[in-house]
C-alpha cells in the first residue's frame, strides 16, 4: 500500500485528489492539510511514502516544507511530488533543489497523477526529458562548479556513461537500449551510483550530472 499525504490550501482540490487516490487498491491518503507547517508535522507523524505538495500555501510554502521533510533522517523513505498551477521554471528548479522527486501542474490528467505517485514510490524521478533539459540547463548556468568534482572519481567509466544518460533524462529501459545492456543491469548501475555519490534519488543524480559538467545544456538525449 502506498501511503499518501496531501498538502494543499484548497479544500476542493484535496477532496478531488483524495477521492481519486483512495479509489485505487494500492493507495491510501493517510492525512491532508492546508499549510506548509502542518505538512511537516503530519509527515513526521504518519511517515507517508509520497507527499503531494502544493507550492503556494499559508504557514510556510511547499518548497520550505519540502526541504524540512527531506532533511529529516526519519523520513528517508518519503518522496515529494510538487503540485502547482504555475508551470514556471524557477518553481521547478527550486523544487528540484529542495529534493522533490517530481513536479506536476494541477490540471494533470488523473491517470498521469496516479502514475506519478507510483513512479516516485518506486524510486524513480518524474521529470520528462523535455522538462529535464530545460530546468537542468538553468541549474547548470547558475552552478558554481566549472569542472567535474572529485566525487565523480569514485565511479567507474561505465557508471559515468550511465550517469550522463540519467542526466539527459533517459529512463532505465532507454539507458539499456543505448548501452546494449538489460534494464535490470541499468537499474543496478543507477543504484550503485546513488550509493557511491550519496544521493537519495534520481532527480539528485540529474542535478549532479549537470552541475558537474558531465552533461551540458543543449545536449540531446
**CATH fold-level topology of the largest domain:** Rossmann fold
| Structural domain tally | 2
Strand order of the largest sheet: 2-1-3-4-5
| SSE string, helices as H and strands as E | EHEHEHEHEHHHHHH
Report how far the terminal alpha carbons are from each other.
34 Å
Approximate helicity band:
40-55%
Protein traits:
five-stranded parallel β-sheet; Rossmann fold; Arc Repressor Mutant, subunit A; alpha/beta; 2 domains; 221 residues; 10 helices; 50% helix
Give the SSE map.
Blueprint lengths: L1 E6 L3 H12 L4 E7 L2 H11 L3 E5 L7 H9 L8 E6 L4 H10 L3 E4 L4 H12 L7 H13 L15 H11 L4 H8 L3 H15 L4 H10 L10
Parallel strand pairs: 1-2, 1-3, 3-4, 4-5
Provide an overview of this structure:
The radius of gyration is 17 Å and the shape is globular. It has helices at residues 11-22, 36-46, 62-70, 89-98, 110-121, 129-141, 157-167, 172-179, 183-197, 202-211; strands at residues 2-7, 27-33, 50-54, 79-84, 102-105. Helix 2 runs parallel beside helix 3 (62-70), helix 6 (129-141) packs across helix 10 and helix 7 packs across helix 9. Helix content is 50%, strand content 13%. The model has no long low-confidence stretch (mean pLDDT 84). Helix 4 links the parallel strand 4 (79-84) and strand 5. By secondary structure, the protein is an alpha/beta fold.
Amino acid at each position: 500500500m502506498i501511503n499518501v499525504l496531501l498538502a494543499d490550501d484548497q479544500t476542493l482540490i484535496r477532496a478531488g485528489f483524495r477521492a481519486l487516490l483512495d479509489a485505487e487498491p494500492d493507495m491510501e491518503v493517510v492525512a491532508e492539510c492546508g499549510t506548509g507547517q502542518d505538512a511537516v508535522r503530519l509527515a513526521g507523524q504518519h511517515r507517508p511514502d509520497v507527499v503531494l505538495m502544493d507550492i503556494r500555501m499559508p504557514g510556510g510554502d511547499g518548497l520550505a516544507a519540502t526541504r524540512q521533510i527531506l532533511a529529516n533522517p526519519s523520513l528517508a523513505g518519503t518522496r515529494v511530488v510538487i503540485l502547482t498551477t504555475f508551470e514556471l521554471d524557477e518553481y521547478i528548479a527550486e523544487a528540484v533543489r529542495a529534493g522533490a522527486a517530481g513536479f506536476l501542474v494541477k490540471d494533470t490528467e488523473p491517470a498521469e497523477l496516479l502514475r506519478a505517485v507510483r513512479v516516485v514510490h518506486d524510486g524513480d524521478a518524474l521529470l520528462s526529458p523535455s522538462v529535464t533539459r530545460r530546468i537542468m540547463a538553468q541549474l547548470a548556468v547558475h552552478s558554481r562548479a566549472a569542472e567535474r568534482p572529485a566525487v565523480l572519481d569514485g565511479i567507474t567509466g561505465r557508471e559515468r556513461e550511465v550517469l550522463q544518460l540519467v542526466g539527459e533524462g533517459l529512463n532505465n529501459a532507454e539507458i539499456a537500449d543505448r548501452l546494449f545492456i538489460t534494464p535490470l543491469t541499468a537499474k543496478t548501475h543507477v543504484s550503485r551510483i546513488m550509493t557511491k555519490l550519496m544521493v537519495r534519488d534520481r532527480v539528485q543524480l540529474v542535478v549532479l550530472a549537470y552541475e558537474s559538467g558531465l552533461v551540458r545544456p543543449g545536449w540531446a538525449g
